[in-house]
Write a structure and sequence with these properties.
The protein is of the alpha+beta class and 473 residues long. It has 2 domains: 12-220 and 381-468, Zn peptidases (Aminopeptidase, 3-Layer(aba) Sandwich); 223-275 and 312-379, Alpha-Beta Plaits (2-Layer Sandwich). The chain has helices at 12-39, 52-67, 145-162, 185-191, 193-196, 239-242, 249-258, 284-291, 305-310, 350-363, 389-402, 417-424, 451-468; strands at residues 73-77, 91-96, 104-110, 130-132, 135-137, 169-175, 200-207, 215-220, 222-231, 237-238, 314-321, 331-332, 335-344, 370-379, 382-383, 407-411, 429-436, 448-450. The strands form 5 sheets. A 6-stranded mixed beta sheet has the order 1-2-6-3-7-17. Helix 3 (145-162) crosses helix 13 and helix 11 (389-402) crosses helix 13. The longest helix has 28 residues, at 12-39.
Length: 473
């Protein structure tokens, strides 16, 4: 692709900036009202939950997209889940064609949410949006229904100001199963490749440096999640009769899991790699504040704190099936099942990391314990090419939308489907943005959205759209 003709400060895009920012400011109350309506819909993609709520959620997003007046077509679609007879959850695809050589931008977010967990841990009901202390609380308020409304509110503002002169191509893809593994994502891209093809892709599903400083995510860790069953007996036995001679599955599991980490808590698995890259200054005090570390609990790992989160692997046991405390008896357990979630440093594939983990666990299984692996879910990390014109334009828009320069971020979490976007659209520039701040508590009780961060995120995206409309490819 040839370099685009960028507008200068006296050009059309610059002339629209102040009007666009004013339209954003005027439209924020309506956007927050619509966000509250979305939060009230408990759309979770897990089969255990009412799947009609996802249909409600998709219909609500479709209506919001149609009402912008921007799109030529808005559809609710599903794609097949490869290797199964099932289809994925409903997604919204809205499109408008570019005119007169203007670029096309693809806007991504997702309308499904994590389950709320224990309602008793929420200060207010998880699906009743509540504003207090400058934050909007509710499941999905930040992750990622705020991402949807950032797109919608930005489109409203730009359409209001630019009107018929809006010649930018826009595709909007709002997924319905991101929290459940995006099982039909790759097939959806393949099925709708022509409609989704774009010069730049905004993935509004990440975070910011803090509540006042924007972040452009330039690296993401990959993931390797799997289930492991540990067996030592073919049936339960009396712990008094055989304890001390017979290893039960819990003992074997505890000893085996302990081999995954060094004494300082860093990963001790040969074959899991790290990335060597500089990180911004980030103190232990900030970590304690943002992560909620108890006063007597120390951080783990080695190197700078952000290198541990952004550029090194981590291994976490996120689930375990064994006898509950309430049902405990004097019994040697024959088997224990655990779910292990590993984060993989950028530059290593999920497949390589999983292979290293399985090798390690099999090699360290104590007492000849029998190991079975299943439900393997892998995703690759991502490193952004920051040399493109869209990245420069986005950094400038962040500076003007927030009033402070952005920080290039690494993210310890994973967005595995970005690898699918890169595969299908190799020429597109990927822009990973977000509306969350470090206190949003996505996936946790009392998830919330910082309202000023949301306003600045909408302003930033509106400037991106308006300025891209001033570009000719």
């Amino acid at each position: 692709m040839t370099s685009p003709a960028l507008p200068d400060e006296s050009g059309q895009a610059g002339a629209h900036d102040s009007a666009v920012l004013e339209a954003v400011s005027t439209g924020i109350p309506a956007a927050l009202g619509d966000l509250g309506d979305l939060v009230r819909i408990p759309g979770m993609a897990w089969p255990a939950f009412d799947q009609t709520q996802l249909e409600r959620s998709a219909a609500a997003v479709s209506a919001l997209a149609s009402a912008t007046g921007v799109f030529d077509e808005v559809r609710v679609l599903r794609a097949a889940i490869p290797g199964t007879d099932e289809t994925g959850q409903p997604a919204v695809l809205a499109t408008r064609k570019a005119k007169n050589g203007k670029p096309t931008i693809l806007l991504y977010a997702h309308h499904d949410v994590q389950p709320p967990g224990d309602d008793a841990l929420w200060e207010t009901p998880p699906f009743e949006p509540t504003v207090r202390d400058g934050r909007l609380y509710g499941r999905g308020a930040a992750d990622d229904k705020a991402g949807i409304m950032a797109h919608i509110a930005a489109l409203r503002a730009v359409s209001e100001v630019i009107g018929d002169d809006l010649e930018l191509g826009v595709a909007m893809f709002i997924e319905g199963e991101e929290e459940y593994g995006s099982r039909s994502f790759a097939q959806f891209l393949s099925d709708n490749k022509d409609a989704l093809r774009a010069d730049a892709i905004v993935v509004a599903d990440s975070g910011n440096w803090d509540s006042v400083t924007p972040g452009l995510t330039v690296s993401l860790r990959g993931n390797a999640r799997f289930t492991m069953k540990v067996r030592t007996l073919d049936h339960a036995s009396h712990s008094g009769m055989f304890g001390g001679a017979v290893p039960d599955a819990m003992m074997a599991t505890v000893k085996l899991l302990s081999t995954l980490w060094h004494e300082d808590g860093s990963v001790a698995v040969d074959g899991m790699t790290s990335r060597d890259a500089e990180t911004p200054e980030y103190t232990e005090a900030t970590l304690r504040d943002e992560a909620g570390l108890l006063p007597g609990t120390s951080p783990i790992g080695d190197g700078t704190i952000l290198s541990r989160i952004w550029n090194k692997p981590s291994v976490t046991v996120i689930g375990i099936d064994a006898t509950s405390v309430a049902a405990a008896s004097n019994t040697l357990l024959p088997e224990v099942t655990v779910v292990i979630s590993a984060r993989v440093a950028p530059g290593q594939t999920g497949e390589e990391a999983y292979a290293a983990l399985e090798r390690h666990l099999r090699a360290h299984a104590p007492y000849g314990a029998e190991l079975t692996f299943s439900d393997v879910d892998l995703g690759n990390g991502f490193l952004v090419d920051t040399s493109g014109w869209a990245v420069a334009l986005t950094r400038d828009a962040m500076r003007d939308g927030y009033g402070v320069p952005p920080v290039d971020l690494g993210v310890g979490g994973s967005i595995p489907f970005i690898a699918d976007l890169v595969r299908e659209f190799p020429a597109a520039q990927i822009l990973v943005t977000g509306v969350e701040d470090p206190h949003s508590r996505a996936h946790s009780p009392n998830e919330s959205l910082h309202l000023d961060t949301f306003r600045h995120a909408v302003a930033t995206e509106a400037l991106i759209l308006a300025r891209m409309n001033g570009i000719t490819l």
